[in-house]
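Case study 2.
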Amino acid sequence: MAKRPAHRPTKCKPEHNQAIVELFTLQDPYKIIYDVKGKAQYIPVRLPFFEDFAESIGVDDDTIGTWSKVENEKKYPGFHSAYMRAKELQERQIIEGGMVGAYNPQFSIFLAKNITRLRDVSKLEHSGPDGQNFVFKVVNYAPPSDGSPPVS
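Prediction:
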């Protein structure tokens, strides 16, 4: 009896490396349309997503995520690099479209925070004047024994 393979063969093919990059390269994030007064209006085009690529090759987006992991580079040669390049192109489309006002500002912020590497960062300074350490004076306090209010 012939031995059966342990699992299905992968659907990841070398041509997918170029195809995923091309999906994010083919279009600008917006179209410019001029109104009758000559004023430019920025109209967003449909942004590509990794789910679109997964659907186009007949796999789900979790599979694309597995193929794109750096530890799987030997198993799926070149796919990690192609995925990272596609991610950079996607980020650029989101940022450029948001900067010209092609997308709703709140939606642009949401996309940028959740899909790109951009994050809101708050920096808290925990030092005194001129970057010196805070100086604390520790005072032992005991309330008066006669029940009278403390003197400040």
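The radius of gyration is 28 Å.
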